[in-house]
Structures are given as structure tokens and as C-alpha cells.
Write a structure and sequence with these properties.
By secondary structure, the chain is mainly α. The chain has one helix at residues 7-58. The protein is rod-shaped, with a radius of gyration of 26 Å.
């Protein structure tokens, strides 16, 4: 019985696992980055609105 080594198949599977892991890390990082940017945008809108209200009340 002759057993064949499938080194290329194992390398391909390892490469798929590495790429999948990197993709998951990128997606998680993008989610948190988007969440932080949305929070910053909301706070900036509040500051601009408060400044506008303050300036209009002084006129």
C-alpha cells in the first residue's frame, strides 16, 4: 500500500485558515471603528447644535 503525501492540500488549508482569521479580525475592527466614529459624530453634532443655540440666544 502506497500512501501519498498531500503537502499542497495542507498548505492550502492552512492558508485558508490564516486568511479567514485575518478577515474576521478586519471585520471586528471595522465594526468597532464604525461604532466609535458614529459616537464621535453624534457628540460633534450635539456640540455644534449647542453652540448654534448659544449664539442665536445671544443675538
Amino acid at each position: 500500500m502506497n500512501i501519498l503525501n498531500d503537502d499542497q492540500g495542507q498548505a492550502s488549508a492552512e492558508l485558508i485558515l490564516i486568511i479567514s482569521t485575518m478577515t474576521i479580525i478586519v471585520v471586528i475592527t471595522a465594526h468597532y471603528t464604525t461604532s466609535i466614529l458614529n459616537d464621535i459624530t453624534k457628540e460633534t453634532e450635539k456640540v455644534i447644535e449647542n453652540g448654534r443655540e448659544y449664539i442665536l440666544s445671544k443675538l
